[in-house]
Every structure is written in C-alpha cells, then in structure tokens.
Amino acid sequence: VQLQASGGGLVQAGGSLRLSCAASGRTFSNYGMGWFRQAPGEEREFVATISWNGGIIYYADSVKGRFTISRDNAKNTVSLQMNSLKPEDTAVYYCAASRRQMGDRWSGAYDYWGQGTLVTVSS
After folding, report:
1. Ordered per-residue pLDDT tens for the chain, 123 residues
2. Which of these, 5, 46, 51, 108, is most buried using a 10 Å CB contact count?
C-alpha cells in the first residue's frame, strides 16, 4: 500500500484543518488505518485509528472531542478533521495502514506509512 498524506499547513490556535490520506496499490478496505504525529524532539504518538469498515474508532485523550477520523473505502481515503487546534498539536502527521483490520493504537502494528504532512498551530 502506498500512502500519500496532504492537507497540513499553518493555522492559528482555535482554527481547523482537514488532513487526507490517499491509498493505492492494494485493497484499501482490507486495512485498519491510523493517524500518528511526531513533534520536534518527541517520539511519534498515536492520534486516532479506524477499523476497516469505520465501525471501530479510537482517539488519543489529547484530541478526543476535537478531532474526527473517517474513511471512504470507495475513494481509498482516510481523513482527519481537526478542530479547535492548539499549539501543542503542532507536529508532522502520518497516516498508516495496518493488516489488523480493527486498527490499533500501537505504531508497531502498522505495515505501511505515508510521508507525513506538517501541521503548525500558532498561538
């Protein structure tokens, strides 16, 4: 699976961004999907995950209520709607695909990674 993330940019605190990840190469609906992020000097951390059919979703506590993950298997895309952004959300955001169809919070469960898209939230 090849993954291409897009939609990052610079936004003021309180603003919104929508990240998208386009998948190609294999049957997208066979994979659980996740979003992770990595801030400068920090380890990569879990943001959200969605199962193959969208029926199971988990969020990190830090983004719960502000971020929404969704997928469109017909279009081979997974999205992350980010609202009420905070400066601490600044990071490179990565989408990832896992053979674990239920998705997973653990980065080690993912088999394929996109290149990342930078989100910068100014205060």
Report:
1. 999 999 999 999 999 999 999 999 879 999 999 999 999 999 999 999 999 999 999 999 999 999 999 999 999 999 999 999 999 999 999 999 999 999 999 999 999 999 999 999 999
2. 5
Phi, psi dihedrals of residue 43, rounded to the nearest 5°: -80, 160
Q: By C-alpha distance, which of 31, 29, 8 is closest to 102?
A: 31
Contacts 24+ apart (CB under 8 A), 36-42: 36/93, 36/94, 36/96, 36/107, 37/89, 37/91, 37/92, 37/93, 37/94, 37/119, 38/91, 38/92, 38/94, 38/116, 39/88, 39/90, 39/91, 39/92, 42/91
- Those residues with Cβ within 8 angstroms of residue 116's Cβ, 6 or more apart along the chain or in another chain: 5, 38, 92, 93, 94
**Ramachandran region, residue 54 (left: φ > 0; alpha: ψ -120 to 50; beta: rest):** left
- Provide the 3-class DSSP secondary structure of residue 49: strand
